[in-house]
Structures are given as C-alpha cells and as structure tokens.
Amino acid sequence: MRICCALLLSWLALVPCQAAEWFPVPVIADGQARDYVPLERASRPWRVCTLLPHGIDRYWWGVAWGLSEEAQRQGVQLGIYEAGGYQFPDVQRAQLSRCVELGADAFIIGAIEARGLCDEIRQLQQRGTPVIDLVNGIECAGVTAHSRVDFADMASVAVAYIRARAGSSPVRIGWLPGPRDAGWVLDAERGVQQAIQGASVSLAEGGYGPVDRTTQAALVRQLLAQESHLDYLLGNAEAAAFAASLVKVSPSRFPTQVVSLYATERVLDEVRQGQVLAAPTDSPVIQARIAMDLAVRALEHREAATWVSPRIQMLDRAALDHFDISRLMPPEGHWMIRQELPE
C-alpha cells in the first residue's frame, strides 16, 4: 500500500497543476457594475495582432503575459509587438501595417498617442476589422471596444488618498504625469484638475517626458530643485520610484511624501518598504485578458460591452497583504513577450 501511494504521489508531482481561472472578475461595463466572464473558447483560431508602446517595465510585461495567456486559453493565434517607447509612434504605425500584411483578423492596441492612428483605424473599420483599445486610450472613430481604466479616475483616487491623509491642511503636490500626448496622460491631467477643484490643494507641474528612468530622474531632480516645500509628489511609476529613492537617501533635504499614479513591481517594492505611500492599480493583466475576449466576441458577433474597466484598487502596505498580484504582473521568471503573428 505504501509503495502504491508513493508511486501515486510521484505521478501526481509530474502532472502540471491547472491554473486557477482568472474570472469572474468585478468590472464596470458600460457604466454598470458586474462580474465579467469571458467566452469558453473561440470558434476558430483567429489571428489577433497586439501593438504595445514598449516592453520596458513589468507593467507591460504583465499586459503581454495576460494577452498571451488568454489567447492560448481561447485558441487564438497572436502577434505581440512593442514600439520601444512613447517617442516612437512611427514604429507602432509600421507594426500595424506589418500586421495588415500578415492578414490580422483583429487588432488590440495600447496606443502611443490617443489620435496617432486614426487614419489607419478608419481604414480597418472600412474593412470590418475589429480594433480594441487597450490601457492607454484611443480617441478615434472606428474603435470597436475599450478595455481600459480611465486614468482620470486613477488620478482622482490618488489625489483623494492624499487629501484624506492631509485632512484640512493646505497641500502642495508636485505633478509628473508622463508623455505629453499619451491618452492616459491627458486623462490623468483631467482627473487631477477635477480632484483638486475647490480644495486647499496647489499643483506644481514638473513637465512631461517618456517614462524611462533617465528622463523621469531628470524631471524629478528639476522639480525638487525648483519646489523646496512640496508636501507630496504624485507621478508616473518611474518618477515616483526615483523620487522615493531620493527621499530615502536625503529625507531632510527632500521632505516630500510620494504617491504613484499607478502600480508597478518596483513601486510596490517601495510601498512595502514605506518609501512610496501608495499607488492605485488598474489591473493591467486583467485588462489584457478582457481585451482579447472582446476581440474574439467582435469577430464572432457575440454580445459584448463597448467599455470594460476592472475596479480600481488603492494599494498601500496594508492592502498589499490581501491583493492578488497576478492581476498586475506576470509570474516570477516571465519576461516581456514579443512574437510575430504566424504567417
């Protein structure tokens, strides 16, 4: 009996564990709160092209991983392309053209610019090709559906967190959103302005730039040099992480508390250490999975919402103990996925 049990246990150890389903997941779909449940499987191996702005950090690694996982689950062929940064809109445009040549049935686009691909999207619409807006925001006619969280809401949640900590005291906030023409930055600016309206909050604008470490470090240094009495710095993940490192090294010189506009692995490490106070998460892995399902639904003429957003969660040290990190980033050991759409 012991031998049989040992053999059985050895065999079970070789059998891969089935991953837990990611659904149902609470979302806001076309303005209504509900649980999102995707299709069981696509009816055929549709060819889906995804275009992302870059693969520099684990935020977009998580997006790529979510796309890949859902494509495999539904039996869809997938191409994943990243442009290399927000300063390369022409690369993203060329990647779109490449996918058209390869006969993509649908597109999922994390756009570099909110209106940068309007001509191309109009042409895709004329061909009957679905286009799903993922994460960043596309402001063009012809978009089939949106899988994204409004960054106006992300910014509002972050400012509300700061205001709650400050109470009735006046607050000066340094603001470093990110690339000037990105749709999510335009939304975030709108959210910040709405959130501070009528409040004892003043804003010190630190400028715009790509979300690479070098650019954001320079902007952070410049802002802190100009504004010696900032109560808080609110910025993109790279800006927040770099600001937190400066505050850690020289707290007397930089007596500023840091809040990130969104969560990444590096930011959450800083939150755990108490260097960044908190960051809202838009659950990018879930957004990616939903985008893939929306693309399949559009191709198969299934019922679908036109705008789906995972619920925003504010992550501070206490909240991290109960948060499912797989909503935000890929498992340990997974890197950025880049793959050509099969010919």
Decide which structural class fits the backbone.
alpha/beta
pLDDT < 50 stretches? 1-18
CATH topology tier name of the largest domain: Rossmann fold
Number of helical regions? 11
Could you describe the 3D structure shown?
Helix 5 (151-166) packs parallel to helix 6 and helix 7 packs across helix 8. The model is unreliable at 1-18 (pLDDT under 50). The termini are far apart. The chain has helices at residues 2-14, 58-74, 89-101, 118-126, 151-166, 183-196, 213-226, 237-249, 265-273, 284-299, 317-320, and strands at residues 25-29, 32-36, 47-52, 77-82, 106-109, 131-134, 145-147, 171-176, 201-205, 232-235, 257-260, 279-281, 307-310, 313-315. An 8-stranded mixed sheet has the order 2-1-13-7-6-5-3-4, with helices on both faces. A 4-stranded parallel sheet has the order 9-8-10-11, sandwiched between helices. Helix 8 links the parallel strand 10 (232-235) and strand 11. The longest helix is centred in the N-terminal third of the chain and has 17 residues, at 58-74. It has 2 domains: 28-148 and 283-310, Rossmann fold; 151-281, Response regulator (Rossmann fold, 3-Layer(aba) Sandwich). It is 40% helix and 18% strand. The protein is globular, with a radius of gyration of 21 Å. It is of the alpha/beta class and 343 residues long.
